[in-house]
Write a structure and sequence with these properties.
Blueprint (H helix, E strand, L loop, with lengths): L8 E7 L32 E5 L7 H5 L2 E3 L19 E5 L3 E4 L5 E5 L5 E5 L31 E7 L5 E4 L6 H8 L17 E9 L5 E8 L26 E7 L9 H15 L7 E7 L4 H16 L4 E3 L8 H15 L8 H4 L2 E2 L10 E4 L5 E4 L1 H9 L5 H14 L1 H7 L7 E4 L2 E4 L9 H9 L25 E2 L1
Parallel strand pairs: 1-3, 2-4, 7-15, 9-11, 9-12, 12-13, 13-14, 17-18
Antiparallel strand pairs: 1-8, 2-7, 5-6, 5-8, 10-11, 16-17, 18-19, 19-20
Bound molecules: guanosine-5'-triphosphate (GTP) and magnesium ion (MG).
Length: about 475
Amino acid sequence: MNAASFVDECTVHVRGGDGGSGIVAFRREAHVPRGGPDGGDGGDGGDVVLVADPNVTSLVDLHRAPHLRAGRGGDGGGKGRTGARGDDRLVPVPVGTIVRATDGTALADLSAPGRRAVVAPGGRGGRGNRSFATRFRRVPTFAERGERVDETLLRLELRLIADVGLVGFPSAGKSSLVRRLSAATPRVEAWPFTTLTPHLGVMRAGDRADGSPIDVVLADVPGLVEGAADGKGLGSRFLRHVARCRVLLHVLDAGTAEPGRDPVHDLDVVLRELERHDPGLLGRTQLVVLNKVDLPDAVTMAGLVRPALEARGLEVLEVSAVSGAGLDALRYRLGALIDTLGAAHAAVDDVDREPVVLRPAGHAAPIGVERDADGGYHVRSPRVERWVAMLPIDDPGAARYLQGRMRRAGVERALVAAGARRGDVVLIGDVEFAFDPDPQDLPPEEREALLAGEADTADLDGLDVAPEGADADGGRWASA
Ligand SMILES: Nc1nc2c(ncn2[C@@H]2O[C@H](COP(=O)(O)OP(=O)(O)OP(=O)(O)O)[C@@H](O)[C@H]2O)c(=O)[nH]1
Ligand SMILES: [Mg+2]
């Protein structure tokens, strides 16, 4: 990871696979002239799934290629065969990725390895004509198209999850300490300059009572300066990365020769900035290291300030990232703290393995009706719009089926309540209908309201082109 490749925010365009279409087919048998319907259902579209993966440390890949699509479901086949399910698109993201809607609402938090979020579920497969056969509709001549799904925009934000966050002034030695402490692990590379981006290192810190190793994840963030909480310096942008650290390790430069600076002053500045960013941060377990004690002046300084720091109840360790002095004690101390507090990258339990599923908004929303400027009525309901889009309403059987379904869902009642009368134009999705409800299906007040307006629209009855018949779903609207 280097400065150029660290990305901790990005926008992605996600789209599940469309559902496959159901088909219309009839059985062919040697001695049966016209067999029953046996068109199979389409397969469901695949899902776009984000997976928290410890091997991914930045959102850079998604930043470069932000369009994520899953596979389309296969169409149904004859002999009742169901189409294949579309391929899922599994996308590894860093542990600590938060998924947000474009308005900033948090939708999912991938805060542990293996945690998954279905961010774009695939469309439903359309049903084949076999699925529409009933006692009253023995020969359905229609099938549903697969559900088409829309693209959604999501914001991804990375909040690194580490056990210990190293904070301090620039050049206090944070990066040098992380490098020394986690030298044996390949996740940390050498980076010689001031830190521009947050960086994680894994430190092996001894063993637990049961013999299992204690791994501590260290977060190295850019140095903080006075005014960081207001956006000064590099650190401000990254303060959120320490938000999830259980332990804050203050790295103080005991060897600084800069006028006006000493370790206690530096600590106060950093504490003030942390508090201004998030007062909750000061409630974390905190530990202080006085760094650079390989320098004689630093040893003197450490001796001078230690009493003042301890008087505040702080635990103080003296270390040198250069000579390695005090590092074993620091490693041991951090390991013990994390062993007690629990590691950030704890194993996910089974409950957590259930993925979060983000359904498109409005699926369960009540049916809305709006009056158009030209007098028509616009039905607003993703659910009903989907039914209309999936059915071939030119087929009279499909139209009747649709109308029965809409009536049961309360679309007619909602239209009458909104003032629609027989013959009015009703728009659902991009399909226009002439409104022709059955008064018998309406509660008394609405029936009266409908019949009261009947006299002037009675001549529009002719628009009802759907043939009446012995169809269980009934239905009398005509698609215009
Ligand atoms: N003598 C001595 N020098 C050190 C020690 N630790 C770090 N340094 C030096 O201090 C300078 C800054 O060290 P870094 O580790 O980059 O400091 P940092 O806190 O990560 O700095 P920023 O990333 O800018 O916030 C480098 O020149 C290091 O070699 C130490 O224990 N002793
Ligand atoms: Mg650094």
